[in-house]
Amino acid sequence: RIERDGAPIQVHRRKALALIAYLITTGRSHSREALAALLWPEYDHDSARAGLRRALAALRKALGENVLEADREVIGLSHDAMTWLDVNAFQERLAACQAHDHRQTQVCQDCLVLLSEAAALYGDHFMAGFTLPDSPDFDEWQRYRAQSLRDELTAVLERLARGHGERNEY
């Protein structure tokens, strides 16, 4: 789901939605060539680049002009774009727990709070219900990302159960 100021934004092209998800999740810029090959693998070079231009136009229309930075070679998020991503917030909480000065098998009170917040952020699997059947590399990236996040959630829930169990908080 994409929102601006709490209101949902509709992106009507699936490839445009895949593009913004990939850019914001990876957190870096990518070459036009790589993005075109990822999202339009069966198209020739010119057709794939045209598809990428259409996806960029759709994103700019939906998100505004200042969210993306694109030049002739590279596309990425603008440094001025204020974005929040649930995946990043989830992983920030896990990183904060790992920064604590105790073994990973221990669960301090601060960890319980952070892990509970992380679990609450996990509303559904990564991009649940979204696929690009004509872009197998994108689907593979999405499956890998979803599995990694599910594995992290499993670890979060195990630590929460252990931490609350140690405190007799059933």
Describe the overall structure.
The radius of gyration is 19 Å and the shape is elongated. It starts with a strand and ends with a helix. The protein has helices at residues 14-26, 32-39, 45-63, 86-98, 109-121, 136-166, and strands at 3-4, 7-8, 30-31, 68-70, 74-77. The chain has 170 residues and is mostly helical. Helix 1 (14-26) crosses helix 3 (45-63) and helix 2 (32-39) crosses helix 3. The longest helix has 31 residues, at 136-166. The strands form 2 sheets. Strands 3-5-4 form a 3-stranded antiparallel beta sheet. A two-stranded antiparallel ribbon has the order 1-2.
Could you give a quick summary of the protein structure above?
57% of the residues lie in helices and 8% in strands. With 170 residues, it is mostly helical. A three-stranded antiparallel sheet has the order 3-5-4. It has a two-stranded antiparallel ribbon with strand order 1-2.
Give a topology summary.
Layout: E1 3-4, E2 7-8, H1 14-26, E3 30-31, H2 32-39, H3 45-63, E4 68-70, E5 74-77, H4 86-98, H5 109-121, H6 136-166
Helix pairs in contact: 1-3, 2-3, 4-5, 5-6
> Helix count?
6
Give the overall shape, derived from the CA principal axes.
elongated
List how many beta strands DSSP finds.
Answer: 5
User: How large a portion of the residues is in β-strands, by DSSP E?
Assistant: 5-15%
Distance between the termini: 34 Å
